[in-house]
Amino acid sequence: MSEKSDIDAEKARLLRRDAEWVLAASEGRDIERILSFWTDDAVVLPPDLPAIIGKAALRQYVESSLQVPGFRITWSTDEAVLSPDGQFAYLLGNNAVTMDDPTGEPVTTKGRAVTIWQRGTDGEWRCAVDIWNAEPTAGRTR
Predict the structure, then answer these.
(1) What CATH number was assigned to the domain covering residues 3-134?
(2) 19 φ, ψ to 5°?
(3) How far apart (Å, rounded) are the C-alpha atoms in residues 75 and 131?
(4) 96 with 73: CB under 8 angstroms?
C-alpha cells in the first residue's frame, strides 16, 4: 500500500468520524458522546466568548448550550488536509447554530469553521482545536 493510499484511507476515516460528531451534536442528547470527539485538553474558540479549555469546561459549555431554547448545531465539512505522517489534520467547513429569539422564533446563524484534529495513541481521531466565526455579511467577500 502506498503512502498516498494510506493518507487517503486515513482522510476517509477522519471524515467518517467528523460525520459521527455532527450527528451526535445535532441530536443533542448524549453529552458524553459529544465530548468524546474532543481531546482532553481541547481548546474551543467560539465567537464573542473566552476560550474554553479542557473537558471540564467543555462539559459545562455543552450542557449550557443544550439548555438554550431551540438550540441546535450542525455543520458540513468541505475540505480535509492531513499531515504527511497522518497524525494531524485540519478540516474546513460551514456550520449553522439555531436558537429561539425572545419571541420564540428560531434564528439561525451561519458560520465558517476550522478544526484541528490529532490521532490519539489509541488510533482514534479527536478534535484538539475548534474555532468558528460568522459568515461575511452580504456583499463582502473573503
Answers:
(1) 3.10.450.50
(2) -65, -35
(3) 13
(4) yes
